[in-house]
UniProtKB/TrEMBL annotation, chain A:
<dbReference type="InterPro" id="IPR050771">
    <property type="entry name" value="Alpha-ketoacid_DH_E1_comp"/>
</dbReference>
<comment type="function">
    <text>The branched-chain alpha-keto dehydrogenase complex catalyzes the overall conversion of alpha-keto acids to acyl-CoA and CO(2). It contains multiple copies of three enzymatic components: branched-chain alpha-keto acid decarboxylase (E1), lipoamide acyltransferase (E2) and lipoamide dehydrogenase (E3).</text>
</comment>
<dbReference type="Pfam" id="PF00676">
    <property type="entry name" value="E1_dh"/>
</dbReference>
<keyword id="KW-0560">Oxidoreductase</keyword>
<dbReference type="InterPro" id="IPR029061">
    <property type="entry name" value="THDP-binding"/>
</dbReference>
<dbReference type="InterPro" id="IPR001017">
    <property type="entry name" value="DH_E1"/>
</dbReference>
<protein>
    <recommendedName>
        <fullName>2-oxoisovalerate dehydrogenase subunit alpha</fullName>
        <ecNumber>1.2.4.4</ecNumber>
    </recommendedName>
</protein>
<keyword id="KW-0786">Thiamine pyrophosphate</keyword>
<feature type="domain" description="Dehydrogenase E1 component">
    <location>
        <begin position="38"/>
        <end position="337"/>
    </location>
</feature>
UniProtKB/TrEMBL annotation, chain B:
<feature type="region of interest" description="Disordered">
    <location>
        <begin position="1"/>
        <end position="21"/>
    </location>
</feature>
<dbReference type="Pfam" id="PF02780">
    <property type="entry name" value="Transketolase_C"/>
</dbReference>
<dbReference type="InterPro" id="IPR005475">
    <property type="entry name" value="Transketolase-like_Pyr-bd"/>
</dbReference>
<dbReference type="InterPro" id="IPR029061">
    <property type="entry name" value="THDP-binding"/>
</dbReference>
<dbReference type="Pfam" id="PF02779">
    <property type="entry name" value="Transket_pyr"/>
</dbReference>
<dbReference type="InterPro" id="IPR009014">
    <property type="entry name" value="Transketo_C/PFOR_II"/>
</dbReference>
<feature type="domain" description="Transketolase-like pyrimidine-binding">
    <location>
        <begin position="24"/>
        <end position="199"/>
    </location>
</feature>
<feature type="compositionally biased region" description="Low complexity">
    <location>
        <begin position="10"/>
        <end position="21"/>
    </location>
</feature>
<keyword id="KW-0786">Thiamine pyrophosphate</keyword>
Length: 369, 344
């Protein structure tokens, strides 16, 4: 039913919210409303975090606005807390949908004492051991070979977990991507590779990134199925992703899913002028018109279960309140002091770091006196 | 004529160019050097991630694609191995590639191409093939970038025979060194201290000039102690020297500018005069290039030393996000090392 190597992305619901093929039974109005809520929550989280950035309370942020269906759909297709995830830096919506507490995420963005990553990483480069959500590295595609290894370990240990590895379209140009895909293919490791193809890598469009018509066809070269899905259609994302995850879980080797979506916002706050330099307003507004959240709203309307404007406004207000409260709560824990610099470098503090820490302690104490 | 000007022996006016020197910042100096070299030599090509339409994430290449065309200034796929490897291939075929790696932290995927190909092509082929390329990359901390946008990896490259390694701290040097790198016959890793991109302002001549790779600049003459640094730490080094001056201590300040090759004569000569040296860099201490400088000082100026060579460096920890400012050696830490040397 779910095809491999299709020329067009698999889709269930079109941009007007009309089903283009029969909706699988599990997509009840209740489930669709739940998905809608999760996507909207993530969207508003993005919006609030951009405000924090403008207020100078955090220093960096990379939105996932427009990509909610891809990330929420993925979270819904795996077993959070059971399967392992090797994510990339734009995956906070995935994290939220998997159950990473907003408070943790915000703490990480603010680098406060409540940040599980202990103030060491850039904003939203978070980690959650509880959810087997591995710490994010900014170095593009560096998570791909470890994800292959994580899946190989699972095979070796005989567990029924799978490994999920996400990346952008740009990442598929890195040697690490090819190395990791190849390794997983050869090892027949239970790894689900997910390309969040939002069509831009900063200012480099996907056509300048690869001469291949799509990303998903590359899977064939590494001996695994490649699926192509409309990443703004959460029904399609969940259907294809669930199918691919089942393939992986069944021990039939790795799979690649390419979700065709769009990065509506800028790459990050360092790139607020995208439209001026490398892409057109028309292109952006065309994709704004394909908004995954609006699509579900239209679908629900079509199914006779519209989301009322009060419901919508209420959810937005609740999310904003939650963010505001979490920000205040996180800020109240203060910033980690210099000591945490020396911890976690190694399991034990070696003598040369002890010496350096002592020197810094003297300097800091001296400064205070 | 100051010592600094004296040592800029390669500042050669091009006949016919006139005009007043202008004050620009470090990133403008980089852009000007690139534009002028693209103009001067058709073999020069420029590429990397986002250098084209976007003009680079720091805008170092802004306007260059519009001016020189997509064949000479272009975006590449997101792959540092491809960028460096392709540069090696082009250089071997007679072009003068100038590749940008978006952040020094991301040279990792291109590392093998740098150390196995670029650095060794001339040597292993008995000089039959050469590799005149330049890799430009923003490095260093102070911009709240966490460890993926703040590291100072120069020591990996100074440890690799066959590479030249430079890091300017002024617009004058940024422009002159980049031109020298592009015109040179060897692979050059050109680190740009990103926190000085806009903070460092200074005069550059209106005429064409180069700064010879391998010559240090004496920024300030002194007799009691020699402060040696390079790149992003230089403004703090100079601040420390000023503070010492206010206390009646005369510090000489040397900006290495080039790490490979480096100006042993300038350093040894200075330490022989002052008897004390404090080395300043922001890279982690273990395996830091300044360890080599310290070694040469003790080897060649041991009899002149009146105190152990002081070193102020980054800590042996990954670069932290929150403690960005604590990590970097600021003027106070530099001063404390100077005081230790003076009171020894
Ligand atoms: C190895 C490496 N090179 C360069 C960068 C700088 N950089 C950060 S994000 C990015 C674009 C990534 O694009 P893509 O993989 O498509 O993900 P997207 O941001 O579009 O979601 C680049 C070039 C990096 N982080 N790592």
């Amino acid at each position: 039913m779910i095809e491999v190597h299709t020329p067009d992305p698999i889709r269930y619901v079109n941009e007007d919210g009309q089903p283009v093929q029969a909706l699988p039974g599990r997509f009840t109005p209740e489930l669709l409303r739940e998905l809608h809520r999760e996507m909207l929550r993530a969207r508003e989280f993005d919006r609030k975090l951009i405000t924090l950035l403008r207020q100078g309370r955090t220093t960096f942020y990379a939105q996932s606005t427009g990509m909610e269906a891809t990330q929420v759909g993925l979270a819904r297709s795996i077993r959070p807390g059971h399967d392992w995830v090797w994510p990339y830096y734009r995956d906070h919506t995935l994290g939220l949908a998997m159950g990473v507490p907003m408070y943790e995420l915000i703490s990480q963005c603010l680098g406060t004492n409540s940040d599980p990553s202990r103030g060491r990483q850039m904003p939203h480069h978070f980690a959650s051991a509880a959810l087997k959500f591995v710490s994010i590295s900014s170095s593009i595609a560096s998570q791909v070979p470890p994800a292959a290894g994580s899946a190989m370990a699972q095979k070796y240990l005989g567990t029924d977990e799978i490994t999920v590895c996400t990346f952008g379209d740009g990442a598929t140009s890195e040697g690490d991507w090819h190395a990791g895909m190849n390794m997983a293919g050869v090892a027949q490791a239970p790894c689900l590779f997910v390309c969040e193809n939002n069509q831009w890598a900063i200012s480099t469009g996907v056509r300048q990134q690869t001469a291949s018509e799509t990303i998903h066809v590359k899977a064939r070269a590494y001996g695994m199925p490649g699926y192509y899905v409309d990443g703004n259609d959460i029904v399609a994302v969940m259907e294809v992703m669930t199918h691919a995850a089942a393939h992986v879980r069944a021990g039939d080797g790795p799979a690649l899913v390419e979700c065709l979506t769009y990065r509506v916002g800028s790459h990050s706050n360092a790139d607020a002028d995208a439209e001026k330099h490398y892409r057109t307003r028309d292109e952006v507004s065309a994709w704004v018109g394909r908004d995954p959240i609006v699509r579900v709203e239209r679908l629900l309307e079509h199914l006779g279960h519209p989301v009322s404007s009060e419901e919508r406004a209420d959810l937005i207000a609740r999310t904003h309140r939650e963010v505001d409260q979490d920000v205040l709560r996180a800020e109240a824990t203060g910033q980690p002091d210099w000591k945490i610099m020396f911890e976690d470098v190694y399991a034990d503090l070696p003598s040369h770091l002890r010496t350096q820490a002592a020197a810094l302690r003297a300097e800091q104490d001296g400064g205070r006196a | 004529m100051t010592a600094t000007q004296d040592r800029q022996s390669t500042d050669t006016p091009t006949p016919g160019t006139t005009g007043e020197p202008r004050t620009i910042n470090l990133i403008q100096a980089v852009t000007e050097a690139l534009a002028e070299e693209l103009e001067r030599d058709r073999r020069v090509v420029l590429f990397g991630e986002d250098v084209g339409a976007r003009g680079g994430v720091f805008m170092a290449t802004a306007g260059l694609q519009a001016r020189f065309g997509k064949e000479r200034v272009f975006d590449t796929p997101l792959s540092e191995a491809s960028i460096v490897g392709a540069a090696v291939g082009m250089a071997a075929r007679g072009l003068r590639p100038v590749a940008e790696i978006q952040f020094a932290d991301y040279m990792g995927p291109g590392f093998d191409q740098i150390i196995s190909q670029a650095a060794k092509l001339r040597y292993r082929s008995g000089g039959q093939f050469t590799c005149p390329l330049v890799i430009r990359t923003p490095s260093g901390g102070g911009v709240k970038g966490g460890h993926h946008h703040s590291q100072s990896p120069e020591s990996y490259y100074t440890h690799t025979p066959g590479l030249k390694v430079v890091m300017p701290s002024t617009p004058y040097d940024a422009k002159g060194l980049l031109k020298a790198a592009i015109r040179g016959e060897d692979p050059v890793i050109y680190f740009e201290p990103k926190r000085l991109y806009r903070a460092a302002k200074g005069e550059v001549p209106a005429h064409d000039y180069t700064v010879r790779i391998g010559e240090a600049a004496i920024r300030r003459e002194g007799s009691d102690l020699t402060l040696i640094g390079y790149g992003g730490v230089m403004p703090d080094v100079e601040r420390a020297a000023e503070a010492l001056g206010a206390e009646g201590v005369s510090a000489e300040v040397i900006d290495l500018r080039s790490l490979v090759p480096w100006d042993q004569e300038a350093v040894v000569g200075s330490v022989q005069k002052t008897g004390r040296a404090v080395l300043v860099s922001e890279a982690p201490r273990t395996g830091n290039f300044m360890g080599e400088v310290a070694y040469v000082i003790q080897e060649r100026a041991f009899d002149s030393l009146r105190a152990p060579v002081g070193q102020v460096a980054g800590f042996d920890t990954p670069y932290p996000y929150v403690q960005d400012k604590v990590y970097l050696p600021g003027p106070n830490r530099i001063l404390a090392a100077c005081v230790r040397a003076l009171n020894y």
